[in-house]
Amino acid sequence: MSIGTFTVRPVDPLHDAELLHRWVTDPKAAFWMMQDAKLQDVEREYMRIAAHEHHHAYLGLHDGEPAFLMEKYDPRYVELVGLYEPEPGDVGMHFLVAPTDRPIHGFTRAVITAVMEELFADPGTRRVVVEPDVSNKAVHALNEAVGFEAVREIDKPEKRALLSFCTRAQFLAARGVAV
Q1: What 3-state DSSP class applies to 13?
Q2: What is the full DSSP assignment across 35-66?
Q3: Which pTM value belongs to this model?
Q4: pLDDT digits (tens, 9 = 90+) for 31-56
Q5: pLDDT tens track for 94-124
Q6: What are the φ and ψ backbone dihedral angles of 164, each rounded to 5 degrees?
Q7: What is the torsional sign of CA 166, 23, 122, 47?
């Protein structure tokens, strides 16, 4: 069974702020840590990201409709500075699936797979790096399902995080593709 087609486009902070505000303040988005954000806060945050040389936000579309948020960043300059030794080709990633009242079985796994495919479409990406909250067991399981290996816990200013890596080979192996 096909879940559909996924595409991404850059976030337009002014145009997309209202939609993103609904997503990031939803109770299911607690780990995004923007529960109390006002619309202007979301607009300001995504304008900051849009202006940043090493941090990018994308709106993910499912069959042309907004369905998820993806951020990619260079961990040498954003999020993980001084918390691990980055390697050439490391790309940091965050993703958030839009809240829905009509869940589709396997959708979140399809989204993280699409996000990983998008990141690895760049031949310069050698390894994807994530740092989810240590208590976010659901995302740890998803990360493991697409090939991430948990390395160690780290302390970030806003949370205790589980530093995890996924190489292109690990991602392909998790998808059953011969490497």
Answers
A1: helix
A2: TT--HHHHHHHHHHHHH-TTEEEEEEEETTEE
A3: 0.92
A4: 787 888 898 999 999 999 999 999 99
A5: 999 998 888 888 899 999 999 999 999 999 9
A6: -140, 150
A7: negative
